Amino acid sequence: MALTEHDDGQDTWEARHHLTQAGAPLDFTIQQYSVAQAQRMVEIALEKSRWNALMVSMHASFLYEPLRKEQAELKEFLDQQRKNQRDWLRMMKATTAEAQYAYAFLQWCDAFSLLLCQDKIPVDGRRLEISRGPDDVPYFVAKAPDDSLCVDPWPFDVDSFVVGVEAFQLNQLAFKNDKELYDAIQQADILRHEWRISNTAR
Fold this sequence. Notes:
The chain is of the alpha+beta class and 202 residues long. Helix content is 42%, strand content 16%.
């Protein structure tokens, strides 16, 4: 749940929350942080389970701790997350080490999915680090000659599998407001992007 919901609580599709000044769809990686969104993200996670909320709260800490000194509201939010994490661990009788291992797994999966969805896998077999896994080992991905992707060291139980996402091809460069962008996404053709992950060493 935390993997699929750890960025929930985004602004509603109204006004111009999802557009640049020029009206182009806004790349989420350049959006300004929002304490209100982060609070909603944790609240939504807490509706599912304490463990889910713990993972999402740890994600918020990971994202925003480097910005702690930028505003009082953010510092207060981060202090609350530290307290939440301590309280939830105690309630679940879980250890800090267990939580850190689980969050490192979430972070590794998130890093890998971003590399795929942002089309950042290099060509010609060059290796790219995904991130360090929960075992504190660095993992790398490379594209094989048959266009499959290999992860090294291989962390999966099976030798090969396929993952995919839906994408939407927009033919319009700029939009008047969020509603126009939202409507265009809903009416766009659905494209399926898929990747075969294979252990080429076996």
